[in-house]
Amino acid sequence: MDQERNYTDTTGKLAREAEVTGITIALYAELGLLDHIRCSNGTRLFRAGQAPQVRKIYAERMANRGRRSVARV
Predict the structure, then answer these.
(1) Within a 10 A sphere around the Cβ of 4, how many other Cβ atoms?
(2) Which tens digits make up the pLDDT trace of 45-55?
């Protein structure tokens, strides 16, 4: 129970703080990029203070858009 108190941000709150969409937050959570728990009703709760991390992930992903992951020989 004590650990759950650290998880206070909803998807919407984190999305607003990080200036991204809720879909982006959900995707990062599913990819394992964000620390979160699921409540019994399916709601995701995120550890407070992850907005800077979301912005960093977003910026890195946008910088790599269109790049191929396969090395050219």
Answers:
(1) 10
(2) 999 999 999 99
